[in-house]
Each structure stands twice: as structure tokens, then as C-alpha cells.
Amino acid sequence: MKSLMNSIFGKFVVMIIIAGMAFWGADQAWTSMNTGLGNDLAAAGPRGIDMTTLDRRVENLLRNINASAEKPITKSEAADQGIIDQVFSVETSKIVNLGYAATIGVKPSTNAVVEQLKTVDAFKNPLTGELDLNTYREVLYQNRFTKAEYEQQVSDDLALKTLSDGAVAAIYPPQVLASIQALYIGETRDVSWFILDATKAPTPDAPTDDDIRAFYDENLAALEQPERRSIDLLKMSADDFLSGVTVTEQEIATIYEATKSERFSEPDQRTYIELYFADRDTARAAFGQLAGGADPATLSGVLSSETRTSSKESVADTALQDAMFGPGKQSGALFGPRESDGKWLVARLVSVQPGAVFPIETVSDVIRDELTRERAQVLFFENLDELDRSIGAGYPLSQIASELGVPVISFAPVDETGTTSEGVNMAGLTAARDAFSDAFRVNAGDVSSRYDGDDAVYLTSPRTIIAPSTPEFDNVKDDIRQNLVAQRAANAMQAYSDSVIAKLKSGDTTLAGAAAAAGASVESPTVPVTRITAEQSGLPTPAISAIFAGREGDVFSYPNRTGEKFMVVQLNTITPPSDAALELLGTQATSSLNQALRDDLQFAAEAEIRNAMKLKVNDNGLAAYKKSVATDQ
Q1: Beta partners for 451?
Q2: What is the pLDDT of residues 567-620, one digit of tens each?
Q3: What angle (nearest 5°) sits at the alpha carbon of residue 173, between those of residues 168 and 177?
Q4: Phi and psi (nearest 5°) for 105?
Q5: Strand stretches in 83-227, DSSP E
Q6: What are all long-range contacts of 531-540, with beta carbons under 8 Å and residues at least 24 apart?
Q7: What is the pLDDT of residues 519-541, one digit of tens each?
Q8: Which terminus of the chain has a lower count of CB atoms within 10 Å, N or C?
Q9: What is the rounded distance in angstroms from the CA atom of residue 591 to the CA atom of residue 586?
Q10: Residue 445 exposure: Cα atoms within 13 Å on the Cβ side
Q11: What order do you get walking across the sheet with 565-575 strand by strand?
């Protein structure tokens, strides 16, 4: 290397590298200055969105998606699937509207933001039912929001709502349009149909050997088998270290004694008194007296009182349940005032009767399992460092597994979807996600990048690589024959249905005649088909769309999932609604038309705002963010 650096060629290479780096840095700086965006990825007026904010929006969306998804989505996958582009599109639309709101002076007041916060139940004190700052901060912390971020979001939502409401305020459709809308939604379409059994179609000729060979020769590319790789998988989780954990009886006994009253006992019973008052002020005064230690019997203004003894599960009111049975609640705990059926409730916890404690023999296995898993988790995290060192050292997968004491699982050759040549999907392998994908990007014997799942980490290494190949004719001719037979049968059934439709359209037969010829019966919906009742008619959605776009006498056909039966539908007559029906439909027509007008005006307002506000987008910055997401994952 020294010799190379001292040579003329080496110095020339270094000069090129330095010039390239300088140009790249200057290019980046120029791009930032030229767009006028600074660190923002997009901006409109005074509002913008930077990479950190976009990343937070993406994380929030993925957290919500993954909460109910069978297979969590990573940021890398979100980028590949266009989810990040969708989030960015939504955010740029918001900043355009917020930028416009700022330029015309639409800004919610502090009082408006506070009033909005007061409506969020999660921020309310369970005792008083009012906005509680400590609860507010705690909820924001749990949801990874700062106070400033959340309040800005509330302010933005109020501004957007003001713009939206202003665009569609006081919209009332004229009566002439309402009358036309009533005609539109009240129009009745009389339809009939029968089910055509297409398996009665003439049996097509069986494919000959020449047909099969010709199909093979014409579809060599489609018949090619993809590259497949036999892959070794290392999956390391806390379960791999359970056998290395020892838990003593003394440790079990210590934990049992410390937690038996909270964890290993029957639910306790609690006695509390419910006091009802005529108005809030009287209830608040009584609440203050009780907080000062007053006897409930000495309170004035009590309409009624009732002493209850119950378990937590028997209290239906969740706020009262939390106040009387919540963690750390002791005699004297208070609840209220809270309105209930026109009266104001204040409750006070009188006493706590602990439940019976379970013997240690019945719960020792539970404690042992919890301790074992907790310590195995510690060992798991300790071994992650060892795993990273082994990966960094470039060890083969077998050596990494041996040093960690974790088994390697070997899988039969699969393609990039995790499917074998027999069509079996290896779900245990595809669970490695990015590590599985990496196995198709590295050479045989190399180790993939580490993928961290919810409860395990994964590494893969391709053992052998089977190149793409086209199977020999003799090996696939039977499969081709079956496919051709099925294809010709499907074509014959479609042709059979088309011939029936052609006869109906030409007038050679009637719907009743076609049904009789097919050995079927004509059916009609049980209710008149209008745009309001169409979904109750039993017709498939495509048929409903065609019927309301068609003319009297039109005929349509729709196959079932297997293509063996067709619903043959005929539109018989179109009947306008009667005067009596129009009167009944008036309100509904006005309502639907009003919503349509609101939607149109909202769309028009947003289009005008987009025209009025210049949106600047840093495409290079967005591309850099997506690239960093893919790299990080």
C-alpha cells in the first residue's frame, strides 16, 4: 500500500477521490440552498416536515399496523411497498393546508387547544373527571409524545377542521337538484336471472402429445424453475438459554413471601359507601369534607347512601372500579363527584378484606418459570454481544452456532418466496425476514446480516445454490397435460355461457327459454332493486354496477369462483319512483345530495389551496431517508 501511495498512479487516484468528495459535498450544499428547504423534506409557506418528523409518522403508522398484523412490517418493507411514499404524500397534503391556514391567519387559540384536551378521557383524573396535568404527561410519555409535539398536533387538527368547516358551511342543495336526486335513488330496476351450469358444455378434445410438446416449446421461459438455495438458519432466543438457568427453592420462597398478597391470593373484597347529592356544588363540598376526614353520616345534602361490599369484577363502572380497587387504594380513597342519572355521586372506600392466600406448593412452578425466563432473557442479551463479535470476525454460521451453543436448522432448497420445488412454503425460514432475503444476496457459505424479530434474532447462510433451469419435457409432460385439459374445459364453459348470452341478446330465445333449456329456473329478487336496496337483492357487486349502468333488455353473465356456474342476469324494466315514493325519498335525497356537494366543495377548496400554495419537495432528501431506512433495517 505504501508503494502504491508513493507512485504517480497512486497519487493520481487519491486526487480523484478528494476531488470527488469535494464535489459531492458541494453538490449536497448547493442542493440544500437551491431548494430553499434547509433540513426540511418538503415545505409550503411557513410549514414544513423534516426527516425526524417523517420518521416518527412512519413509526406510529407501523406500530398501529403491527399491533394487529400476523407478520409485522419493517421500515425496509414499508419503503419497498410504497407505504413511506403514502405517508409522505399525506404529510405534504397536510402542510400545504396548514401553510395556507397560517398565511390567512387561521390559528387556534391556547384556550381552544386546552378545551380540546379536556375532551380526551385518557387525560382526565378518575376521581374528579377533569383534565389532570400529571395524567396528561404520563399518557404522552407512554405514547412517545412530547407535550409540545402533541399540542402542536392538536392545534394543527383544529386548524384543518376550521378550513374544512369553512369550505362547506351552510351548504343547502336547491330543490330542483333534490328532486333529481330523489328520482335517481328511487328508480326501480326489475331484474331476473338463472344459474347456468357450465359443466354441461360439450367436452373439448383431449390434448394430443403434439399439443403438449408444442405448449412446452412455446412456454420454455414460463416453465423455467427459479434459482433455489438450501439454507442454514440460526435462530437465537431466550428459550435457548433456559437449560442454563438454576433457580433455588429459597429464591422461590422469597418472591412468594414478598408478592403473595398481591399475586397469589383470592381477589379481595372491598366495602365502600356511595353517596348521592342533588347538585355538583353540594357533592364537591361533601367530597372536600370526606377528604378532611369527616364521617359520611354527618354530611348534609345527602339524597341517599348505600354501603356495598364486592369484588373488583362485580363493579361495572370502570372509573369507580379503579378508584376503589386500583393499585395502592386504601381505606379513605374517594371518587367523584360524577353525574349519574341526574344525581351526583361521591364514593368512599371504607375497608379492604384480603382474599385467601394460595399455598406456596401450588404456585412455586409459576414463580420458577418466571425467574427462569427472566434470567434466560438476561443471558440472551449477554450473548447478543458475543453473536455480533462472531459476525464481525467473519466466522461461518456453524462456528457461530457452536460458540453460542445454539442449533443450526437446515432447510431444503427454496426460492425467494421460501417455497420448495414441491410447492411447500417454509414458514420457519421466511420468519427470518431480512436475514432470509439476504441469503439470496450472499455467496454460498457466507453469513447474512442479523435480523431482530420480536422475540428472537436470526442469521442465515446459503449451503448450496441451484441455478435456474428448465425441466426436461418428460418430467413435466403429465403436468402440462393436466393444465391443458383444465384450460380447455374452462374455455369450453366460457364459450357455452357466451353462446347463451348471444342467443338472448339476438332475441333467438327468452330468459325463461334459456333457463328451461339449461334445466334451471328463473329467479327474481325479493325486494325491488333500487340504488338503496341493491345490496339486499342477492346479486353480485359487478352485476349491480352493470344493472344501474345498463338499459332495458341488457343481459350480463358472471361466473362463480370455480368458473363452473354462471349467473345470467337480464335487466327487464326501469321504473321511475311514484309521487308517493318521491315524497318519502325527499329527506334522504337531500341528505345524500348535501353530502355529495360537501365532498365536491371540499375537493374544490383543496385544489384551490394547492394552487395558492407552492409546495417545495426535496426529492433527494426523501430518497436519502428511504435509503437510510433500508440500510438500518
Answers
A1: 458
A2: 999 999 998 888 887 777 767 667 777 777 778 888 888 888 888 888 888 888
A3: 140
A4: 85, 20
A5: 188-197
A6: 531/184, 531/185, 531/187, 532/185, 532/186, 532/588, 537/191, 539/191, 539/193, 539/567, 539/569, 540/567
A7: 999 999 877 788 888 888 878 88
A8: N
A9: 9
A10: 2
A11: 188-197, 565-575, 555-559
